[in-house]
Amino acid sequence: MQTAPASRQDTNQSDRREFFRTDFQTSVTAIHVREDGEGKTTVDTFRAWSQDISPAGARLFTREPIDCERLFLKFLLPEIGDRFIEAEIVNEGEEVQKTFSGNVRRLPAYGVRFLRMVDDAEIEQLQQQAAAPEATGD
Length: 138
Fold this sequence. Notes:
The chain is mostly beta strands. The protein has a single domain, classed as Roll (Pnp Oxidase, Chain A). It is built from one helix and eight strands; from the N terminus they run ββββββββα. GO terms for molecular function: cyclic-di-GMP binding. This is PilZ domain protein.
């Protein structure tokens, strides 16, 4: 698999890397929380896949571009169980894959930096906020 740099920063960060990255492909549940100008919270959940991971961050790719700076990520890793990690996107690129049929597929790719482990209660609260009906001013 090859990656090509895109818009945020150059994706060649080996000189800045504090931890060794391990090739590790797994499914990732990603949550993006948005608030509109009226204070309404929207929670979008989508699937991503890891390409590599380290204690400080990971390389992810998705089917659709991500339009945010921060995410909550849950990796299929026994070491962290079902916990979410808050992360920020530090660079963008493109994952170029060759399919079984010989076609080329291009997917958005992202370098993320891990910020902190998130308690389940915080994720549940975000989901409840998004699911709560809007208060009416009748």
